[in-house]
Design brief:
Helix content: 10-25%
Strand order of the largest sheet: 1-8-7-3-4
Radius of gyration: 20 Å
Structural class: alpha+beta
Largest sheet: 5 strands, mixed
Number of strands: 10
Distance between the termini: 51 Å
Number of helices: 4
Order of helices and strands: EEHEEEEEEHEHEH
Shape: globular
């Protein structure tokens, strides 16, 4: 497979065994290596018999990966492979310069390449309470998308939220219903991460 620098992608694995509690009973982990560089990424259960490893690579070139499983008998959740990473060619600074970091005795955020990052954020507190494809009381395809598009237009580069109204509850463990809620949350975050400012117009209905 081919991926782009700093852009998230996934490896998908199918379990050859059934578990009473998949979230608790088994774990998988992937190790990506390129030259002397190594990145370790935990995998996660994605419902039914599916596990995934979500990763982002930080330099161009050929990467080898090895996936291991705590259940050595489950051959579906382990293996090896290769990933070709090419340079990101889009417009977003976060993918051109790399994820944010801090350095000792430096009083500002910076991209991975050392470029200073000016944090300009807004908080959408009840993001998950709004339908992904429904404007509700507003005359537009999606109130959520309108707010994201508007913040892009205004020059914000950080989008903050809380899991208010989220369709998952991890207080009593994680089951299939929670996983479906995580997948829905992924849609919201993916729209934010890949947004190009569609400039959706939205007006309140009278």
């Amino acid at each position: 497979m081919t991926v782009k620098t700093w852009v998230a992608d996934e490896l998908v694995f199918k379990s050859t065994k059934k578990y009473d509690n998949p979230f608790e009973d088994v774990d998988i982990s992937a190790v990506f290596t390129s030259g002397k560089q190594k990145i370790v990424v935990p995998g996660f259960w994605d419902g039914d018999d599916t596990w995934k490893v979500r990763f982002a690579l930080n330099k161009e070139g050929l990467w080898n990966y090895t996936v291991t499983c705590t259940d050595k008998e489950n051959i579906g959740l382990q293996g090896t492979g290769k990933v070709e990473c090419v340079k990101y060619d889009g417009e977003y600074e976060i993918y051109k310069r790399g994820f944010l970091k801090t350095e000792p005795n430096v009083r500002y955020f910076m991209y991975a390449d050392g470029t200073p990052f000016f944090y300009l954020g807004d908080t959408h507190w009840n993001m998950f309470d709004e339908e992904f494809d429904n404007g509700g009381d507003f005359d537009c395809p999606s109130h959520f998308k309108y707010i994201v598009d508007k913040r892009v237009e205004q020059g914000f580069n950080v989008y903050q939220s809380e899991p208010i109204g989220a369709r998952f509850d991890i207080s009593d463990g994680i089951d299939e219903k929670d996983v479906e809620g995580f997948k829905l949350a992924d849609k919201y975050f993916d729209y934010i991460a890949q947004n190009e400012g569609q400039n959706t117009r939205c007006q309140r209905r009278c």
